[in-house]
Batch of 2 targets.
Target 1
Amino acid sequence: MNGHTHDSLASEESVGLLVDDPSQSDSILDNPILQTQPFSVATWASKLLSPVFYLRTTHWRVLIVRLAWFFVPSFLQGRSMREQIRPAKLGPTAYLDGMRGIAALFVFHCHYSYSTFAIANGWGFNGGHYEILRLPFIKLFYAGPAAVCVFFVISGYALSYRPIKNIRSGNVKDFSTGLSSMVFRRAIRLFLPTTISTFMVVCLIRMGVFEWTREFAMNPKYLRKVREVHPKMLATAHEQWVQWANAIFGGFKVFSWEHYGGFRIYDAHLWTIPVEFRCSLYLFLVILGTARLRTQYRFLTLAVVTYVTYYNSRWEFLLFISGMALVEWDHIRGAHVPPPVLPSGEREKESKPADSTAKVISWNLVAVLGLYFLGQPDSGGSKTPGWVYLTSLIPEWWAHEGFRYWQGFGAVVFVLGVGHSVWWQRVFNSSIAQYFGKISYALYLMHGPVLKVIGMHWMKWAWGVTGVEGEWYTAGFFLGACFCIPAVIWCADIFWRAVDIPSVKFARWFENKLIKTD
């Protein structure tokens, strides 16, 4: 092979074309547009990875790191976030936040448990049910209805705290401004996070995520008791969104005296939100109507309102009104007034005398008594040891949900006892209780969807490991809980920071944009 032939073949190979005329080949090679470089893995890899390199620039790297860090649970994010969860100096009613957080956790335990076990009956019901987890006090760890009663008392207390304080101090301007602000922001506070959570549910439905666990959710082999409605994907997205919008607007039917409002189609647990809103408006009306009365006449009027509410079996309104009464009593006795700061030489002489041991023990026992009443069985109280006589005392005209009778009474007694007990307040002021207090609303909104989307995968896996025969069914239940509980808490933590906190800020910002300036 001569040199010319060798050069031509080299040209053909380099250009990728077969040409007959060597001079034409040379002209093509001389064209800079058609020249190509030899294939290089490094060159092509750099082109393919160029978006990645772009994301590694300072601006994008910071955003990615921040986003990744946002998904880290708040209690693992360092000292500043931990101080936000539990400040070094807590407010005088911070223990109520902790109590609400623990109650929210117990509601979640209830909804995790009642699909697998008959949890409504108490210990010894009808000559059986002698499991240790049904014993009084222990049963409260998964007593959802009792926890809801505690919610409502705390809500009544929290909403009444500042208005009653302003009434008693004669601060008319702050009272009117504060009450007006609370009425305006209450709907946003309750319904904006709920709207967003159910919006997320609809998005997941349209993506088919709920279909992944539908078969398991309807399978009596695994879920042997209460099987909640699993949200369905409708034929078209338009139908789905219309149904969702109707559910949202159904939550505002607060004057119909319905026991349950909207939202239940997409989260069965959200029936309490319209009830909370209705009770809040009822409470604001009572506060406004009694604001100018002297203390004794305000209590007398409140007693009449309480009796009328009680006679109509409106347990939810009773709990809110009871919260208002507890606030007034605490203001009268100066429960939330910090002691004056005295010179060091006068501190011992002027210090407030400590409560007697008998008084301390008495109030602790009052709180324990409240816990016992909170343990009223949801079903079968007339056949349950320790509840036969108490159940017989429930009036016949108490038409709806008889189990709320003593549970509601217990919630009021428990909050009353804790308000007088330093020991109980320390329990609810602990870091763990305060953390659950911060995420309590997010935990309530998130636990249902997360259980259906993520939790049921873990439950199915757990029973796949243990089996479902005999005691292995219980073992699988607890094994699944080891994964479901952290998943729900993690998602609630994210929702708290991403939705709940911004919702509160938005409500205040929106009000400030609309209010009339002096």
Note: Residues 3-67 form one domain.
Target 2
Amino acid sequence: MAREGTSLPWTQDGPRPRLRRLGATVRRRAGAAVTDGFFRTATRVGRLHPLARPDRHGVEVVRDVPYREDGPCVLALDVYRPRTRSGLVPTVLYLHGGGFRILSKDSHWMMGIAFARRGFATFVVDYRLAPRHRYPAAVDDAAAAYAWVVRHAERYGGDPRRLVVAGESAGANLATVLTLAACYERPETIARRVWDTGVRPVATIAACGMLQVSDPERFRRRRNLPAYLVDRLTEVRDAYLGVPGRGGLVEAPLADPLCLLEEGGPPPRPLPPFFAPVGTRDPLLDDTRRLARAVERLGGTCRASYYPGQIHAFHAFMLTKAARACWAETFEFLEQVGVAPSRPG
């Protein structure tokens, strides 16, 4: 047994708390490095595939269009649109995932192609990333992109009156926030920018959303998740909001759109229909279940679609059977809610 005052790292009861914390930190950092490296490598490799060429799908791309020049850096988006079109086509504003920390419009080229080849003018947006740019930077940029698309979509062949907001994971969070800001007259200056456009989305696609960033422990409470998965979810919170007790934000309502839906009353402008696909092996599964209940409580509709055995963001692996089924259901949903462009070509 270690004597009082010694610095031995082990006691009769096992490792000291400091070593346990150190081990957890090393585990989290190693896991984050592996995860980040996987997605970055997959993005680079994916762009080499012949199907990554937009022209093979009848799609043209306008790259690096500035949508925000009033902040600390210039932010841009890419426009994917059908090469052959007659008049204005429905518009998609797409917000990429990546835990608010990684990825970009360049990593999500496949989303732009997928929507554009079905006849949508699709605006895939870059936004500032944590931890360098914490909340509310991403929301602020998403709101600026929304207002920009409403003003400029027609210049690129899109109809702002048929606007779909879409995203996966962290992007689904931002898409849901934009929807709330368009339907509720909220006090935040960021939200007012969306409300003041007067344009409500005609549909919202929130795929595998992380919709309550401030409380990653809720997943452990509801399900027995492995430590490495809880680590990934905690990293999102810590990067986006800061570490609780060490300068992290206490109040961040626009980081938790699910709570706003669950606690709010009927919106002045009706909520658009939601489509929320998710895999049953996704640790974020419960957020989609809660989203469906919350939207329906407010009198809206949410088509939550559960894909057996599928992991987080499975639909991004476009060539798999489950991903193809998910995309087919996505366009079926958009047709059912009246956003059905003519097929290009």
Note: The longest strand covers residues 158-168.
